[in-house]
Amino acid sequence: MGLEYKLRSLLKLNLKLFFDMHFLRECAYVNVGSGQQFYDSSDMSLLLPDTSADDTYNGLGNGSVWQSPFRQWVYESGVALDGIILQSPPVVASGVFIEGAFRPTNDPVFGHTIDFIQGRVIFDTPQPLTLKVQSEFAARQVRVDFEHAFNQQAQLGVLGTKYFTNPVTSQQLVYPSGAIQTFPAVFIELDGREMRPFEMGNRSAIIKEQVRLHVWAQHDLQRDDIIDVLSAQWRKGIPIIDFNIAPLPLSGIFNTLSPEYVPYQELLKNNTIITTVGSGTPVRFMAYLMDIEVRNEVAAEEYERASVTFAIEVVLNAPNTPIGSRFGPITTLPTIEDPGF
After folding, report:
1. Region class of 124: left (phi > 0), else alpha (psi between -120 and 50), else beta
2. How far is CA 228 from the centre of its chain?
3. Sheet architecture: strand order including 303-316
4. CA distance 145 to 187
5. What is the pLDDT of residues 212-271, one digit of tens each?
6. 45 Cβ contact list (under 8 Å, min separation 6)
7. Dihedral of the alpha carbons of 22, 270, 209, 219, in degrees to the nearest 10
8. Is there a cis peptide before residue 167, judged by omega within 30 degrees of 0?
9. What is the pTM assigned to this prediction?
């Protein structure tokens, strides 16, 4: 057993899921159908063997890893859309097309795992490099990650460039290899903390966290759109899901969908869950997005940058552990405010 998730780690995990969901609600994704063509008539759904990625995982031979032109595949389904320009719901990949025939992940011949973060599939056994592999999926247009991911990429010097981003700027399909992730992106950093009592004589507490969101975009209009989506969450309440008992959506070295996946919007209802991770009502406490400050940062290379800083108040209800006590089901707890979804 490792160290359990405490307040700050739970807050970061929930903020990522929260912002991921709202970018989807704003239709910040692109659906790719099998055989869909790009500007130059190339196939956007075509997966190509990434032989360099095979070396990353011990024991995988050439023909095991097949890469799409897009990172950050959408795994969520059933998310309500409320963007101005509505489109079809995001397509969640559930298999691949082999020579035009659909094969699910548990196919006895072409069994595979879907890596949603890297936008690729890993076959159970190596496949011929001449095989025609396609997939239907939705790719996020804005990546939400943590400051460690940014710092790690900066250290390795592989932040990516506009030429690794499909299809907005390159005007041709590029198949990124390895762990390169592309912009635009929002990196979550928890910066400062202030603690104060809820009221005299009450064991409840309020913790005020300063959360800075680092925005990296390809141009100023894209940066401004991202800022508006983030700023629109002002004054909303976020039920903090306890991932000590709830399964994280993606898991394992291949970033595959957890077999016990519970959609985020279902966890927010706070009904009792029973999984191998744990059991109980998943909402531990509430957080509220309060004050907000937006600043444009100095551009870096070809990227436009900004920072969006939230003052987030976390309300701990009679905390008798380092991360408070669990609430009951939201439907029976009228004291929890409307989270604003």
Report:
1. alpha
2. 19
3. 143-146, 185-197, 205-217, 303-316, 283-300, 237-241
4. 5
5. 999 998 889 999 999 999 999 998 999 999 999 999 999 888 999 999 999 999 999 999
6. 32, 33, 34, 35, 36, 68, 97, 134, 135, 136, 137
7. -10
8. yes
9. 0.87
Q: Alpha-carbon distance 224 to 162, whole Å?
A: 18
Q: What angle do CA 51, 42, 104 make, to 5 degrees?
A: 60
Residues found in the chain: 341
Rg over CA atoms, the chain: 21
Q: Cis bond leading into 184, ω under 30°?
A: yes
Query: For residue 203, how many other CB atoms are within 10 A of its CB?
Result: 12
pLDDT tens-digit series, residues 268-304: 999 999 989 888 889 888 899 999 999 999 887 778 9
d(CA 240, CA 9): 11
C-alpha torsion 268→272→273→278, nearest 10: 110
Q: What is the CA angle 263-312-327, rounded to 5?
A: 50
Token representation of residue 57: 């995982």
For residues 53 and 119, give the distance between their C-alpha atoms in angstroms, rounded to a whole number: 12
Q: Which residue has the tokens 């859309």?
A: 81
